[in-house]
Design goal:
124 residues; mainly beta; 4-stranded antiparallel β-sheet; 47% strand; globular
Length: 124
Protein backbone atom coordinates (compact mmCIF):
# COMPACT_ATOMS: atom_id res chain seq x y z
CA UNK A 1 0.00 0.00 0.00
CA UNK A 2 1.74 3.14 -1.21
CA UNK A 3 -1.18 5.56 -1.00
CA UNK A 4 -1.13 7.57 2.20
CA UNK A 5 -4.13 7.63 4.50
CA UNK A 6 -5.06 10.84 6.29
CA UNK A 7 -7.00 10.95 9.54
CA UNK A 8 -7.85 13.33 12.33
CA UNK A 9 -10.26 15.66 10.60
CA UNK A 10 -13.53 16.75 12.13
CA UNK A 11 -15.94 19.55 12.91
CA UNK A 12 -15.27 22.10 15.59
CA UNK A 13 -15.72 25.73 16.55
CA UNK A 14 -13.33 28.52 15.77
CA UNK A 15 -10.39 28.74 18.12
CA UNK A 16 -10.09 24.99 18.57
CA UNK A 17 -7.30 22.59 17.60
CA UNK A 18 -6.93 19.44 15.57
CA UNK A 19 -4.03 17.19 14.70
CA UNK A 20 -4.07 15.53 11.31
CA UNK A 21 -2.08 12.36 10.66
CA UNK A 22 -0.88 10.79 7.44
CA UNK A 23 0.40 7.22 7.36
CA UNK A 24 1.42 4.82 4.62
CA UNK A 25 3.39 1.66 4.13
CA UNK A 26 5.75 0.97 1.28
CA UNK A 27 8.11 3.89 1.68
CA UNK A 28 9.83 5.85 4.43
CA UNK A 29 8.47 9.36 4.93
CA UNK A 30 11.68 10.72 6.37
CA UNK A 31 13.38 10.10 3.01
CA UNK A 32 10.99 12.34 1.11
CA UNK A 33 9.89 15.95 0.94
CA UNK A 34 6.27 15.92 2.09
CA UNK A 35 3.50 18.45 2.36
CA UNK A 36 -0.04 19.16 3.41
CA UNK A 37 -2.45 20.73 0.94
CA UNK A 38 -6.05 21.77 1.33
CA UNK A 39 -8.92 22.50 -0.99
CA UNK A 40 -12.18 24.21 -0.13
CA UNK A 41 -15.27 23.95 -2.36
CA UNK A 42 -14.97 26.30 -5.30
CA UNK A 43 -11.37 27.21 -4.48
CA UNK A 44 -8.01 26.17 -5.83
CA UNK A 45 -5.84 23.68 -4.03
CA UNK A 46 -3.52 25.44 -1.60
CA UNK A 47 -0.19 24.35 -0.17
CA UNK A 48 -0.41 24.67 3.60
CA UNK A 49 2.82 23.28 5.05
CA UNK A 50 5.77 21.15 4.03
CA UNK A 51 8.75 19.40 5.59
CA UNK A 52 11.97 18.44 3.88
CA UNK A 53 13.46 14.95 3.87
CA UNK A 54 14.95 14.38 7.29
CA UNK A 55 12.74 17.04 8.84
CA UNK A 56 15.34 19.77 9.29
CA UNK A 57 13.33 22.47 7.52
CA UNK A 58 9.66 23.33 7.36
CA UNK A 59 7.60 25.64 5.19
CA UNK A 60 4.26 27.34 5.74
CA UNK A 61 1.81 29.42 3.82
CA UNK A 62 1.22 32.92 5.12
CA UNK A 63 -2.34 32.00 6.01
CA UNK A 64 -1.31 29.36 8.57
CA UNK A 65 2.16 30.41 9.75
CA UNK A 66 2.22 30.67 13.52
CA UNK A 67 -0.90 28.50 13.92
CA UNK A 68 -0.02 25.22 12.17
CA UNK A 69 2.98 22.95 12.73
CA UNK A 70 4.11 20.16 10.41
CA UNK A 71 6.19 17.32 11.83
CA UNK A 72 7.22 13.71 11.30
CA UNK A 73 7.45 10.71 13.59
CA UNK A 74 10.05 8.51 11.95
CA UNK A 75 9.39 5.56 14.24
CA UNK A 76 5.74 5.56 13.22
CA UNK A 77 6.38 6.67 9.62
CA UNK A 78 3.70 9.28 10.12
CA UNK A 79 3.35 12.88 9.02
CA UNK A 80 1.42 15.27 11.26
CA UNK A 81 -0.21 18.66 10.96
CA UNK A 82 -0.99 20.30 14.29
CA UNK A 83 -3.59 23.00 13.72
CA UNK A 84 -4.26 25.55 16.46
CA UNK A 85 -6.45 28.65 16.62
CA UNK A 86 -8.56 27.33 13.79
CA UNK A 87 -10.67 29.75 11.78
CA UNK A 88 -13.73 29.22 9.57
CA UNK A 89 -11.54 29.94 6.54
CA UNK A 90 -9.49 26.84 7.41
CA UNK A 91 -12.48 24.71 6.41
CA UNK A 92 -11.36 22.39 3.62
CA UNK A 93 -10.39 18.88 2.66
CA UNK A 94 -6.81 18.32 3.75
CA UNK A 95 -4.41 16.06 1.83
CA UNK A 96 -0.90 14.86 2.44
CA UNK A 97 1.39 14.49 -0.54
CA UNK A 98 4.86 13.22 -1.40
CA UNK A 99 7.02 15.28 -3.74
CA UNK A 100 8.53 13.56 -6.78
CA UNK A 101 9.98 16.40 -8.87
CA UNK A 102 11.66 19.74 -8.17
CA UNK A 103 9.66 22.92 -7.87
CA UNK A 104 8.14 25.28 -5.36
CA UNK A 105 6.93 23.42 -2.29
CA UNK A 106 3.44 24.86 -2.61
CA UNK A 107 2.93 23.70 -6.21
CA UNK A 108 0.81 20.57 -6.34
CA UNK A 109 2.28 19.54 -9.69
CA UNK A 110 5.56 18.61 -7.97
CA UNK A 111 3.83 15.91 -5.89
CA UNK A 112 2.84 12.51 -7.22
CA UNK A 113 1.53 10.51 -4.27
CA UNK A 114 -1.65 11.82 -2.69
CA UNK A 115 -3.96 10.58 0.00
CA UNK A 116 -7.76 10.58 -0.14
CA UNK A 117 -8.03 13.51 2.25
CA UNK A 118 -9.65 14.26 5.59
CA UNK A 119 -12.32 16.92 6.06
CA UNK A 120 -11.87 19.82 8.47
CA UNK A 121 -14.89 22.02 9.16
CA UNK A 122 -14.59 25.06 11.42
CA UNK A 123 -17.69 26.97 12.45
CA UNK A 124 -17.81 30.50 13.79
Amino acid sequence: QVQPVESGGGSLQAGGSLRLSCTASGYTYSSYFMAWFRQAPGKEREGVAAICAGGSRTYYSDSVRGRFTVSQDNARNTLYLQMNSLKPEDTAMYYCATRSRPGAWYEGRTYSIWGQGTQVTVSS
